[in-house]
Design a protein that fits this description.
This protein has helices spanning about 40-45, 75-85, 90-110, 115-140, 145-150. With about 160 residues, it is mainly alpha-helical. The relative contact order is 0.07.
Amino acid sequence: MMRGQRASCGARTRTGLPCKSIPMRNGRCRMHGGRSTGPKCPEKLLGNQNAKGNKSKLETGEYERITLDTLSPEEIAAIRYEESCHGNVELILGEIRIRRMIQRENELMDMNKPDMDALIRLSTAQVNVLTRQSKILIDQINNLPWMKQHNVRFEKYSSRWF
């Protein structure tokens, strides 16, 4: 061990014990902050494959990160309108995700031999997004003043009243 170097990283692990890994120059091991997180400068991000907005590994788009720079002007207008009316942007983001998944589905269908596994994954992802949207809508319905006043609740994830 060199002079001034600690024998272990010293960060706390999930078990609550100190980490026993050998620290790097900054005093932490590679698991607890010893490595760089990548470039922060936008000019350097352009060549970085792991940068924000990298779509090279995008398969279904169910959990696609939607940022303002990836939206069309119509999508931005729809988000602003939804935010001004209801304050809940999740519904419109779900619609954007579904619209993009349908585009991917159409691109797959235009191929000579469409990948059926990819089509099934896309369909499953669409159902998952629609399920999340229906949960949001049911919560909004149950929070309406009329529903609270008459003590009526819409049963979640079903179409029955109780």
